[in-house]
Amino acid sequence: MYTDAEAFLARIRAYPDDDTHRLIFADWLDEQGDPRGAFIRIQLARAHPPESGETDRHLQNQERALLEAYRAAWEAPLRACGASGCEFRRGFIDEIKIEAQQLLRNAHILFSLSPIRHIHLLDVGESLTEVFRCPYLSRLAALTIHAQHIGDSLARVAAASEHLAGLKQLTMTKNRLTDEAAEYLALSPHLARLEELILTDNEIGETGARALAVSPYLGQLQRLDVTGNRFGPVGAEAIACSESLRSLDTVGFSDNGLGTPRLQTLTHVSALLRISRLDLSGNGLNASGLQTILHRPAHAEAPPVRLRELDLSFNELGDAGARVLAACPHLSQLEVLRLGHCAIGDEGARALANSPHCNHVAALDLQNNPIGDSGFRAFLESPYWRSLQKLHPPRVGLSPGIRHALERHFNRTTRRG
What we know:
Blueprint: H1 6-14, H2 19-31, H3 36-47, H4 53-79, E1 84-89, E2 92-99, H5 100-113, E3 118-122, H6 128-131, E4 142-146, H7 152-159, E5 169-173, H8 179-186, E6 196-198, H9 206-213, E7 223-225, H10 232-240, E8 250-252, E9 277-279, H11 287-294, E10 309-311, H12 318-326, E11 336-338, H13 346-353, E12 363-365, H14 373-381, E13 390-392, H15 400-410, H16 412-416
Parallel strand pairs: 2-3, 3-4, 4-5, 5-6, 6-7, 7-8, 8-9, 9-10, 10-11, 11-12, 12-13
Antiparallel strand pairs: 1-2
Helix pairs in contact: 1-2, 2-3, 3-4, 7-8, 8-9, 9-10, 11-12, 12-13, 13-14, 14-15
């Protein structure tokens, strides 16, 4: 990149999370008349946005102008090594897509050019074992492997790689992973620093869920996304009740078959309410199943309720489900509630509008429900929902007058902007 710049770049590579070394390099670039200095400062400023949105918009416009002028030149050395999809963060190319063979061939050059922290690994199949022996993986904070269809051997080899010990985010989506893969990941001491584990669109079931739930190494995990797997209600309960996943804050259970009759037999599934951000969309839940999840035992051992965001979209809750939600005292700390495509009508909307338990909800999504003027008039007349700032009504079925009144009354952030 720059011969005289190597000392600066070496410090940045050694301390990739420390902005100080990036700012020192920006000063040097300014002295050389190099626009990269300004670009680094702008991206660092945007990474720590000020209170004023106007200031950030000004920075965004400057950032866009510099990228339009210089992106091709700045990316060219990495593209020559097989990288694509380059993403700049904090002034440098931070994220790339690259084929496994190209990474093995050019890793030493790529990582000398930029402090890369996130790689999307492509065409892994024939290089599976070899690529996870690459020592440059130890410089990554995030690794994504999508739609390689390798199966459980992918998780087995990754779990055994000591070079992944620095990872904070691991994404293995659409790879035909089963319970065995979940067991490999759960038992890997090299993944003990993970904060995010994303395993969407695989084939992991109850056994894999239980393995993750009792992992001795995933205590720092904050986000788990298993959308499109086969956890079922038992697997979801295992995760929710886990004592090992003590830092878990965000869980995506969408499309996992939680709404089966077996849900009614569980006694601890209400532990899901200890998760701050919970996605239960597309699970075939009805009013009865929702009642099972929201009903909490009175005994002292019940974990505390921490629920702040709840997504129930694409479940046939109907008016009965809306009534269950409206009557639930455990939603008193809820800030975001998504109920799109839930077959809720005017009666259910009126029940929600008159719930005394939703006064902290700031965002409510009721799109694609058969609710008319009567249902939404109840929100306009309600003494509750005092924190509501963003209401998403259906796009059809409302009169212009009611729609305008809802926009004026609730969508305060839009009005201020």
